[in-house]
């Protein structure tokens, strides 16, 4: 069944001389999201993307478009010739999909084509009058309508629609550089990755795996999380770092109360080296201030001292309930709560340091061969592409 969608962006329209770059990236991302839809065409014109589907499930197409960052709204639209009578006929056909007795409605017209002989208010008035004659019981209400029929008069034809399906907003993935996401497998880090992607960041994920202390199912859970995130931004490169030897060394040679702080510092060192290799400009974490021992201000300060590149923390001011709500909305919650432990939850000390001092942490690290541990971990790191 043939379907046409008008795809709108928001924030992109505020960009200056580089606006075209953002528009082109959005168009490319839409094409990628719909690449396996039969007979699908994507065109960029008039500060819009027009998606034409000749053979496909409209509901599936709408669902795909709702996962493309940069899209503010989507409207399934009908096309009319640039003739008022034709516009009225098509408007009536579209309006019949929402019409009911007592419905309050209004008509809004945008006349981008100034060659069209009637101004926007007159088109709205004439189309509205036609609908009143053909749908008994409906009521004009320009202030609080139940339904709005939109008419867009463009250069070559008019587009008519009654629905605005919300998109995720934000910026197209790929316009804001690359970041390495420290992906634990819990609830928080996938949400941090999603929020970074919403700001245009291309995300590569880094997961620390401690087999046999953590199971293969924990690894599969992280792969599934990446697959869910990939629905919003195309494929995701996932790096699996083997962290077992580092955790053994920390357990044997360092004070238990500092183990979480020391572990996070090692993770940051490894992530920074990976970021350098992958030409990523920042690290991304799911930290929320004060949520656990490693996320106090003092802990964050001591842990971050080992890296020289920016660390993005999209969740820093959110509480757990807010994060869980967003996790459910983006489809990662049910995966994150699978009961398979990751390396951040094993060997937890009974009394972890919540206000570690840098001099104590650095003294504890003197017992470790940090460079060798990091080199071995990176040498054993696996990489896979998750689609």
Describe the structure in your own words.
It contains 13 helices and 16 strands. It folds into three domains: 3-79, 2-Layer Sandwich (Alpha-Beta Plaits), CATH 3.30.70; 82-156, VC0802-like (2-Layer Sandwich); 178-386, Rossmann fold (3-Layer(aba) Sandwich). It starts with a strand and ends with a strand. It is elongated and about 85 Å long. It has helices at 19-33, 58-65, 84-95, 120-134, 188-198, 216-233, 244-253, 259-277, 297-304, 320-330, 333-336, 358-365, 370-379; strands at 3-9, 40-45, 48-53, 71-76, 78-80, 104-111, 139-140, 147-153, 158-161, 165-166, 178-182, 202-209, 236-242, 282-284, 311-312, 382-386. Helix 5 (188-198) crosses helix 10, helix 7 (244-253) runs antiparallel to helix 8 (259-277) and helix 8 packs across helix 13 (370-379). It has a six-stranded mixed beta sheet with strand order 15-14-11-12-13-16, sandwiched between helices. By secondary structure, it is an alpha/beta fold. The mean pLDDT is 93. Helix 6 links the parallel strand 12 and strand 13 (236-242). The relative contact order is 0.12.
Please give the number of β-strands: 16
Instruction: Based on the coordinates given, report the CATH architecture of the largest domain.
Output: 3-Layer(aba) Sandwich
Main sheet summary: 6 strands, mixed
CATH T-level fold name of the largest domain:
Rossmann fold
Q: Quick one: overall form?
A: elongated
β-strand percent reads 15-25%
Tell me the radius of gyration: 27 Å
Task: Record the strand order, biggest sheet.
Answer: 15-14-11-12-13-16
Q: What pattern of helices and strands is seen along the backbone?
A: EHEEHEEHEHEEEEEHEHEHHEHEHHHHE
Q: How many distinct domains? A: 3
**Structural category:** alpha/beta
Spans of at least 5 consecutive residues whose pLDDT stays below 50 are none
